[in-house]
Design a protein that fits this description.
Blueprint (H helix, E strand, L loop, with lengths): L8 E4 L13 E6 L8 H16 L12 H16 L4 E8 L4 E8 L9 E9 L8 H15 L4 E7 L5 H6 L3 E13 L2 E11 L1
Parallel strand pairs: 5-6
Antiparallel strand pairs: 1-2, 2-3, 3-4, 4-5, 6-8, 7-8
The structure holds coenzyme A.
Coenzyme A binds next to β5, α3 and α4.
């Protein structure tokens, strides 16, 4: 669907949808414009989502107990790259409230030789929204944004031992590599980093 700004949105009602008293709530996945990186409300929702997902054990760069200041620093770095147009941020948004409840980023590589593909990073949905179709809607929105950029394939890495590979396989990704013990979650808890790819 084309929004009023000409940007494509991926819309869905998921099992997470709860009808309001007069208006049915729905979820929309959309790529944000670079200038939205300065939106304080968007930043607040993104930070709350990232902290809450991490505290719940999500594999998005942090382990509990989570330092919100460290997440805020990572978020500001992410938003800097969105503002400059280097990376593309896709958000999952509740309508009509506009509250952001999920995100994913298309991260550009550093050399021209890799310009035909990007890496999906920081894919997450608020804990209370998980397991009912929101992640599928969000990742399909990321795929739509990638196609709009003319990309040919996407890559991502998954923290082993989290049971995440089947989610990505359901959405078309295949494992293409694995670095044993790459991630030290805690002393004595090393995990593989699994590489996955998907053609668009
Ligand atoms: C990963 C994540 C985004 C998935 O979102 P979700 O809303 O829970 O997933 P969905 O309910 O949309 O599931 C989509 C499909 O994957 C399947 N699926 C999801 N998780 C699965 C799992 N652990 N094992 C097997 N299948 C799974 C669902 O059955 C569904 O299949 P279907 O649509 O064909 O019926 C979400 O769980 C999350 O935010 N996790 C924490 C953050 C994180 O670890 N992100 C991964 C970074 S690599």
């Amino acid at each position: 669907m084309e929004s009023s700004t000409g940007r494509r949105t991926t819309t869905g009602t998921t099992a997470a949808t709860t009808p309001g008293p007069t208006t049915e709530e729905r979820l929309v996945a959309r790529a944000v414009a670079p200038q939205e990186a300065d939106d304080a409300g968007l930043r607040r929702d993104l930070l709350a989502t990232w902290v809450d997902v991490s505290e719940a054990g999500g594999a998005v760069g942090f382990v509990p107990p989570v330092d919100p200041a460290a997440v805020a620093s990572a978020l500001d770095h992410l938003l800097d790259r969105v503002r400059s147009g280097t990376d593309v941020l896709v958000v999952l948004q509740e309508e009509p409230s506009g509250r952001v409840v999920g995100l994913g980023v298309l991260v550009r590589g550093t050399v021209a030789l890799t310009a035909h593909w990007r890496t999906v990073r920081r894919l997450m949905v608020r804990p209370e929204r998980q397991g009912r179709g929101a992640g599928r809607l969000l990742l399909e929105g990321v795929h739509d944004a990638a196609r709009d950029l003319g990309l040919e394939q996407l890559a991502l890495t998954v923290r082993g031992g989290q049971g995440l590979e089947p989610f990505y396989e359901r959405l078309g990704y295949v494992e293409c590599g694995r670095m044993p013990g790459a991630l030290r979650i805690a002393p004595g808890d090393d995990r593989d980093e699994v590489q996955m790819v998907r053609r668009l």
